[in-house]
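Q: My labmate handed me this sequence with no annotations at all. I'd like to see what the chain might look like in three dimensions before we decide whether it's worth expressing. Could you predict it?
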Amino acid sequence: MYKWLEAVRNNPKKKPMPVLSYPAIQMTGVNVRELSFSAEAQARGMKLVADRTDALASVSLMDLSVEAECFGSQVRMTEDEVPTVVGAIVTTPEEAEALQVPAVGSGRTGIYLDAIAEAKKLITDRPVFAGVIGPFSLAGRLVDVTEAMILCFEDPDMLRTVLEKCTQFLVDYIKKYKEVGADGVVIAEPLAGMLSPDLAAEFSHPYVKRIVDACQDENFIIVYHNCGNGTIRMLDGIVGTGCKAYHFGNAIDMRDLMPHMPSDCIAMGNVDPAGEFLNGTEQSVYDVTSALLRDCGKYHNFVLSSGCDIPPRTPWKNIDAFFHGAKEYYRD
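A: Here is what I predict for the chain of 332 residues:
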Protein backbone atom coordinates (compact mmCIF):
# COMPACT_ATOMS: atom_id res chain seq x y z
CA MET A 1 0.00 0.00 0.00
CA TYR A 2 2.94 2.35 0.52
CA LYS A 3 3.93 1.68 -3.09
CA TRP A 4 0.33 2.27 -4.16
CA LEU A 5 0.36 5.68 -2.47
CA GLU A 6 3.64 6.54 -4.14
CA ALA A 7 2.20 5.56 -7.51
CA VAL A 8 -0.84 7.77 -6.85
CA ARG A 9 1.36 10.75 -6.02
CA ASN A 10 3.54 10.21 -9.08
CA ASN A 11 0.70 9.67 -11.53
CA PRO A 12 -0.19 12.96 -13.25
CA LYS A 13 -3.68 11.60 -13.97
CA LYS A 14 -5.38 10.86 -10.67
CA LYS A 15 -8.63 9.01 -10.16
CA PRO A 16 -11.07 10.43 -7.59
CA MET A 17 -11.70 8.67 -4.29
CA PRO A 18 -15.10 9.80 -3.00
CA VAL A 19 -16.63 8.33 0.16
CA LEU A 20 -19.23 6.57 -1.92
CA SER A 21 -21.15 3.60 -0.58
CA TYR A 22 -24.71 4.31 0.57
CA PRO A 23 -26.04 5.36 -2.88
CA ALA A 24 -25.59 1.69 -3.79
CA ILE A 25 -29.04 1.11 -2.26
CA GLN A 26 -30.50 2.53 -5.46
CA MET A 27 -28.90 -0.32 -7.41
CA THR A 28 -29.30 -3.18 -4.93
CA GLY A 29 -33.00 -2.80 -4.13
CA VAL A 30 -32.42 -2.75 -0.37
CA ASN A 31 -32.88 0.21 1.97
CA VAL A 32 -30.35 1.62 4.43
CA ARG A 33 -31.73 -0.36 7.37
CA GLU A 34 -31.50 -3.62 5.42
CA LEU A 35 -28.03 -2.74 4.20
CA SER A 36 -26.89 -2.25 7.80
CA PHE A 37 -27.72 -5.86 8.65
CA SER A 38 -26.47 -7.65 5.52
CA ALA A 39 -22.83 -8.37 4.75
CA GLU A 40 -23.84 -9.76 1.37
CA ALA A 41 -25.76 -6.61 0.42
CA GLN A 42 -22.90 -4.37 1.53
CA ALA A 43 -20.32 -6.30 -0.49
CA ARG A 44 -22.61 -6.47 -3.51
CA GLY A 45 -23.24 -2.73 -3.25
CA MET A 46 -19.52 -1.99 -3.11
CA LYS A 47 -19.00 -4.13 -6.19
CA LEU A 48 -21.78 -2.36 -8.09
CA VAL A 49 -20.27 1.03 -7.23
CA ALA A 50 -16.82 -0.18 -8.31
CA ASP A 51 -18.22 -1.43 -11.61
CA ARG A 52 -20.02 1.85 -12.29
CA THR A 53 -17.25 4.27 -11.30
CA ASP A 54 -13.57 4.65 -12.02
CA ALA A 55 -12.79 5.38 -8.38
CA LEU A 56 -9.27 5.11 -7.02
CA ALA A 57 -10.43 2.73 -4.27
CA SER A 58 -13.57 1.13 -2.89
CA VAL A 59 -14.78 2.53 0.44
CA SER A 60 -17.27 0.69 2.63
CA LEU A 61 -20.17 2.15 4.61
CA MET A 62 -19.24 5.11 6.80
CA ASP A 63 -21.63 4.03 9.56
CA LEU A 64 -20.42 5.78 12.71
CA SER A 65 -22.96 4.04 14.92
CA VAL A 66 -21.57 0.50 14.69
CA GLU A 67 -18.82 0.80 17.28
CA ALA A 68 -20.93 2.69 19.83
CA GLU A 69 -23.73 0.17 19.42
CA CYS A 70 -21.20 -2.55 20.16
CA PHE A 71 -20.47 -0.82 23.49
CA GLY A 72 -24.22 -0.77 24.24
CA SER A 73 -25.47 2.51 22.77
CA GLN A 74 -28.97 2.77 21.34
CA VAL A 75 -29.09 3.38 17.59
CA ARG A 76 -31.88 4.98 15.58
CA MET A 77 -32.41 3.45 12.15
CA THR A 78 -34.67 4.41 9.29
CA GLU A 79 -35.05 3.13 5.75
CA ASP A 80 -33.37 6.09 4.06
CA GLU A 81 -30.98 7.67 6.57
CA VAL A 82 -27.60 6.66 7.95
CA PRO A 83 -27.96 5.16 11.47
CA THR A 84 -27.36 7.53 14.40
CA VAL A 85 -26.60 7.03 18.09
CA VAL A 86 -29.24 8.14 20.58
CA GLY A 87 -28.45 9.15 24.16
CA ALA A 88 -25.44 8.43 26.39
CA ILE A 89 -24.42 5.25 28.20
CA VAL A 90 -21.63 6.78 30.30
CA THR A 91 -22.60 9.67 32.57
CA THR A 92 -20.36 9.34 35.65
CA PRO A 93 -16.73 8.50 36.42
CA GLU A 94 -17.93 5.26 37.97
CA GLU A 95 -19.71 4.27 34.78
CA ALA A 96 -16.57 5.16 32.82
CA GLU A 97 -14.49 2.85 35.01
CA ALA A 98 -17.07 0.06 34.70
CA LEU A 99 -17.40 0.38 30.91
CA GLN A 100 -16.52 -2.93 29.30
CA VAL A 101 -14.53 -3.11 26.09
CA PRO A 102 -16.67 -5.30 23.82
CA ALA A 103 -15.40 -8.22 21.81
CA VAL A 104 -14.77 -7.52 18.15
CA GLY A 105 -17.44 -9.32 16.17
CA SER A 106 -20.23 -8.56 18.60
CA GLY A 107 -23.17 -6.39 17.57
CA ARG A 108 -23.03 -5.50 13.90
CA THR A 109 -19.21 -5.41 13.75
CA GLY A 110 -19.23 -9.04 12.62
CA ILE A 111 -21.50 -8.12 9.71
CA TYR A 112 -19.22 -5.29 8.63
CA LEU A 113 -16.12 -7.49 8.88
CA ASP A 114 -17.81 -10.17 6.76
CA ALA A 115 -18.78 -7.51 4.23
CA ILE A 116 -15.16 -6.47 3.72
CA ALA A 117 -14.01 -10.07 3.45
CA GLU A 118 -16.60 -10.67 0.74
CA ALA A 119 -15.91 -7.35 -1.02
CA LYS A 120 -12.24 -8.28 -1.31
CA LYS A 121 -13.26 -11.37 -3.25
CA LEU A 122 -15.47 -9.34 -5.60
CA ILE A 123 -13.28 -6.26 -6.12
CA THR A 124 -9.82 -7.08 -7.40
CA ASP A 125 -8.84 -4.04 -9.47
CA ARG A 126 -8.41 -1.48 -6.68
CA PRO A 127 -7.81 -1.28 -2.91
CA VAL A 128 -10.73 -1.89 -0.55
CA PHE A 129 -11.07 0.29 2.54
CA ALA A 130 -13.25 -0.31 5.57
CA GLY A 131 -14.78 2.57 7.50
CA VAL A 132 -14.34 3.05 11.25
CA ILE A 133 -14.98 5.83 13.73
CA GLY A 134 -12.17 7.73 15.45
CA PRO A 135 -11.48 7.52 19.20
CA PHE A 136 -12.73 10.95 20.29
CA SER A 137 -15.79 10.69 18.07
CA LEU A 138 -16.58 7.27 19.57
CA ALA A 139 -16.11 8.58 23.10
CA GLY A 140 -18.46 11.44 22.27
CA ARG A 141 -21.16 9.00 21.25
CA LEU A 142 -20.77 7.09 24.50
CA VAL A 143 -20.85 10.13 26.83
CA ASP A 144 -22.94 12.44 24.56
CA VAL A 145 -21.38 14.85 22.09
CA THR A 146 -22.03 18.01 24.09
CA GLU A 147 -20.92 16.37 27.31
CA ALA A 148 -17.65 15.31 25.69
CA MET A 149 -16.83 18.96 25.09
CA ILE A 150 -17.62 19.83 28.69
CA LEU A 151 -15.59 16.92 30.04
CA CYS A 152 -12.49 18.25 28.29
CA PHE A 153 -12.52 21.00 30.94
CA GLU A 154 -14.55 19.70 33.89
CA ASP A 155 -13.50 16.05 34.13
CA PRO A 156 -10.70 15.24 31.69
CA ASP A 157 -9.78 12.12 33.66
CA MET A 158 -13.22 10.62 33.07
CA LEU A 159 -12.93 11.42 29.38
CA ARG A 160 -9.46 9.84 29.23
CA THR A 161 -10.83 6.68 30.84
CA VAL A 162 -13.43 6.37 28.09
CA LEU A 163 -10.87 7.25 25.40
CA GLU A 164 -8.52 4.51 26.59
CA LYS A 165 -11.26 1.92 26.19
CA CYS A 166 -12.37 3.29 22.84
CA THR A 167 -8.78 3.19 21.58
CA GLN A 168 -8.28 -0.37 22.79
CA PHE A 169 -11.42 -1.50 20.99
CA LEU A 170 -10.57 0.34 17.78
CA VAL A 171 -7.10 -1.19 17.65
CA ASP A 172 -8.62 -4.66 17.99
CA TYR A 173 -11.34 -3.87 15.44
CA ILE A 174 -8.97 -2.46 12.84
CA LYS A 175 -6.57 -5.37 13.27
CA LYS A 176 -9.48 -7.67 12.50
CA TYR A 177 -10.22 -5.73 9.31
CA LYS A 178 -6.57 -6.19 8.43
CA GLU A 179 -6.89 -9.92 9.11
CA VAL A 180 -9.90 -10.36 6.81
CA GLY A 181 -8.08 -8.67 3.94
CA ALA A 182 -8.85 -4.95 3.95
CA ASP A 183 -6.16 -2.80 2.38
CA GLY A 184 -6.77 -0.09 4.96
CA VAL A 185 -9.39 1.88 6.85
CA VAL A 186 -10.79 5.37 6.66
CA ILE A 187 -10.92 6.51 10.28
CA ALA A 188 -13.52 9.25 10.71
CA GLU A 189 -12.85 11.68 13.55
CA PRO A 190 -15.48 14.36 12.87
CA LEU A 191 -16.05 15.32 16.50
CA ALA A 192 -12.40 16.35 16.79
CA GLY A 193 -13.24 19.04 14.26
CA MET A 194 -15.19 20.81 16.99
CA LEU A 195 -12.15 21.05 19.26
CA SER A 196 -9.53 23.75 19.44
CA PRO A 197 -6.08 22.73 18.19
CA ASP A 198 -4.84 22.44 21.78
CA LEU A 199 -7.74 20.23 22.87
CA ALA A 200 -7.44 18.08 19.75
CA ALA A 201 -3.76 17.64 20.57
CA GLU A 202 -4.77 16.35 24.01
CA PHE A 203 -7.93 14.34 23.38
CA SER A 204 -7.78 13.15 19.78
CA HIS A 205 -4.42 13.10 18.00
CA PRO A 206 -2.48 10.98 20.54
CA TYR A 207 -5.16 8.28 20.51
CA VAL A 208 -5.31 8.24 16.72
CA LYS A 209 -1.52 7.95 16.64
CA ARG A 210 -1.64 4.94 18.95
CA ILE A 211 -4.07 3.27 16.56
CA VAL A 212 -1.85 4.09 13.59
CA ASP A 213 1.27 2.81 15.34
CA ALA A 214 -0.49 -0.43 16.24
CA CYS A 215 -2.12 -1.12 12.87
CA GLN A 216 -0.51 0.63 9.91
CA ASP A 217 2.23 -0.99 7.87
CA GLU A 218 3.36 -1.23 4.25
CA ASN A 219 0.41 -3.49 3.40
CA PHE A 220 -2.30 -1.67 5.36
CA ILE A 221 -2.82 2.09 5.60
CA ILE A 222 -5.02 4.42 7.59
CA VAL A 223 -6.73 7.39 5.96
CA TYR A 224 -7.69 10.09 8.47
CA HIS A 225 -10.94 12.04 8.01
CA ASN A 226 -11.85 15.28 9.78
CA CYS A 227 -14.67 17.49 8.52
CA GLY A 228 -14.21 20.41 10.94
CA ASN A 229 -13.57 24.00 9.94
CA GLY A 230 -10.41 24.23 12.07
CA THR A 231 -8.41 21.53 10.35
CA ILE A 232 -5.95 23.94 8.76
CA ARG A 233 -5.08 25.39 12.17
CA MET A 234 -4.57 21.90 13.63
CA LEU A 235 -2.87 20.45 10.55
CA ASP A 236 0.47 19.84 12.25
CA GLY A 237 -1.25 17.74 14.91
CA ILE A 238 -3.32 15.87 12.35
CA VAL A 239 -0.30 15.01 10.22
CA GLY A 240 1.56 14.06 13.41
CA THR A 241 -0.78 11.08 13.81
CA GLY A 242 1.29 9.33 11.15
CA CYS A 243 -1.55 8.42 8.81
CA LYS A 244 -0.54 8.00 5.20
CA ALA A 245 -3.41 9.98 3.69
CA TYR A 246 -5.84 12.62 4.92
CA HIS A 247 -9.42 13.40 3.97
CA PHE A 248 -11.03 16.78 4.63
CA GLY A 249 -14.64 17.93 4.74
CA ASN A 250 -16.13 20.80 2.83
CA ALA A 251 -16.13 23.11 5.87
CA ILE A 252 -12.70 24.22 4.65
CA ASP A 253 -11.41 25.28 1.26
CA MET A 254 -8.87 22.82 -0.14
CA ARG A 255 -7.27 25.76 -1.92
CA ASP A 256 -6.30 27.15 1.48
CA LEU A 257 -5.14 23.80 2.86
CA MET A 258 -2.99 22.42 0.06
CA PRO A 259 -0.10 24.90 0.41
CA HIS A 260 0.32 23.71 4.01
CA MET A 261 0.08 19.98 3.32
CA PRO A 262 3.37 18.05 3.42
CA SER A 263 4.20 16.95 -0.10
CA ASP A 264 4.61 13.31 0.91
CA CYS A 265 1.08 13.12 2.36
CA ILE A 266 -1.97 12.71 0.16
CA ALA A 267 -4.82 15.14 0.84
CA MET A 268 -8.32 14.28 -0.33
CA GLY A 269 -11.38 16.49 -0.65
CA ASN A 270 -13.90 17.99 -0.81
CA VAL A 271 -17.01 18.54 -2.99
CA ASP A 272 -20.00 19.21 -0.73
CA PRO A 273 -21.93 15.93 -0.25
CA ALA A 274 -25.23 17.58 0.68
CA GLY A 275 -25.12 20.94 -1.06
CA GLU A 276 -23.80 19.57 -4.36
CA PHE A 277 -24.01 15.77 -4.62
CA LEU A 278 -27.47 15.49 -3.06
CA ASN A 279 -29.08 18.84 -3.81
CA GLY A 280 -27.11 20.15 -6.74
CA THR A 281 -27.58 19.53 -10.44
CA GLU A 282 -25.46 17.66 -12.95
CA GLN A 283 -24.12 20.97 -14.20
CA SER A 284 -23.39 22.45 -10.77
CA VAL A 285 -21.58 19.29 -9.61
CA TYR A 286 -19.54 19.26 -12.80
CA ASP A 287 -18.71 22.96 -12.45
CA VAL A 288 -17.68 22.72 -8.78
CA THR A 289 -15.61 19.61 -9.46
CA SER A 290 -13.88 21.23 -12.42
CA ALA A 291 -13.14 24.43 -10.48
CA LEU A 292 -11.65 22.50 -7.56
CA LEU A 293 -9.41 20.53 -9.89
CA ARG A 294 -8.29 23.65 -11.74
CA ASP A 295 -7.09 25.11 -8.46
CA CYS A 296 -5.80 22.01 -6.64
CA GLY A 297 -5.00 19.54 -9.40
CA LYS A 298 -1.56 21.14 -9.75
CA TYR A 299 -0.55 19.59 -6.43
CA HIS A 300 0.87 16.10 -6.99
CA ASN A 301 -0.51 14.97 -3.61
CA PHE A 302 -4.10 16.13 -4.16
CA VAL A 303 -6.83 13.54 -4.77
CA LEU A 304 -10.34 14.65 -5.64
CA SER A 305 -13.06 13.41 -3.28
CA SER A 306 -16.36 14.22 -1.69
CA GLY A 307 -16.28 16.33 1.46
CA CYS A 308 -17.76 13.47 3.48
CA ASP A 309 -20.00 10.44 3.03
CA ILE A 310 -22.29 10.87 0.02
CA PRO A 311 -25.95 10.56 1.16
CA PRO A 312 -27.95 7.43 0.24
CA ARG A 313 -30.51 9.13 -2.03
CA THR A 314 -28.00 11.19 -3.98
CA PRO A 315 -28.98 11.18 -7.68
CA TRP A 316 -26.57 9.00 -9.61
CA LYS A 317 -26.57 11.53 -12.43
CA ASN A 318 -24.83 13.95 -10.03
CA ILE A 319 -22.29 11.31 -9.00
CA ASP A 320 -21.65 10.58 -12.66
CA ALA A 321 -21.14 14.30 -13.27
CA PHE A 322 -18.46 14.35 -10.57
CA PHE A 323 -16.54 11.54 -12.26
CA HIS A 324 -17.08 13.16 -15.65
CA GLY A 325 -15.54 16.39 -14.37
CA ALA A 326 -12.48 14.49 -13.16
CA LYS A 327 -12.14 12.60 -16.43
CA GLU A 328 -12.34 15.80 -18.45
CA TYR A 329 -9.71 17.52 -16.32
CA TYR A 330 -7.24 14.69 -16.60
CA ARG A 331 -8.01 13.98 -20.27
CA ASP A 332 -4.85 15.61 -21.63
